[in-house]
Amino acid sequence: MFDLEIEVNGKQEQVSVEADTTLLYLLRDKLGLTGSKDGCRSGDCGACVVLLDGKTVNACMVLAPQANGASVMTVEGLAKDGELHPLQRCFSESWAFQCGFCTGGMLMSCYALLKSNSNPTRDEIRAAIAGNFCRCTGYQALVTAVEQAAAELRANNV
């Protein structure tokens, strides 16, 4: 067993895991944060994208011990005080998802984009989600939702 300390969505956690446990399964099984999905276990689908020390990673490809001492943000960390983040709300209002399986990873990839680029072009949005696979949508509503969220965040200086 490996004991680690990790900050998840602003909260310090102490957990014990087997050395071969992935960050995805630490989040899902040990911490009950199921917004990151197990889609492929090979880093190809993006359903498990989280921010690790501010950078997007596929949680299925990171061993939990590698995250010892790190800060992780999951899709559950986007909402504050019960209020959806503008990106989450715009996804919902624009019907930027269908089944929802990929939504957590998509949101995190788009959130990371908006943290680094407050006014992305449609091509930059598409590039940001190139590692996220969706079987249901044509991605058009998703790009529109990100544009709307970006405009709202800029207007509110967030």
- Biggest sheet, spatial arrangement of strands: 2-1-5-3-4
**What integer is the average pLDDT?**
96
Main pleated sheet: 5 strands, mixed
Count of discrete structural domains: 2
Radius of gyration: 15 Å
Which H/E pattern describes the elements? EEHEEEHHHH
Distance between the terminal alpha carbons, to the nearest Å?
41 Å
Model regions low in confidence, pLDDT < 50 over at least 5 residues: none
Summarize the amount of helix as a percent range.
25-40%
CATH class of the largest domain reads Alpha Beta
CATH fold assignment of the largest domain:
Ubiquitin-like (UB roll)
Name the CATH superfamily assignment of the largest domain. Beta-grasp domain
Task: Please give a structural write-up.
With 158 residues, the chain is α+β, with helices and mostly antiparallel strands. The chain has 2 domains: 2-75, Ubiquitin-like (UB roll); 86-155, Orthogonal Bundle (DNA polymerase, domain 1). Helices cover 34% and strands 16% of the residues. A 5-stranded mixed β-sheet has the order 2-1-5-3-4, with helices on both faces. β3 (49-52) and β4 (55-58) form a beta hairpin. α2 crosses α5. The longest helix has 16 residues, at 140-155. The chain is globular. The mean pLDDT is 96.
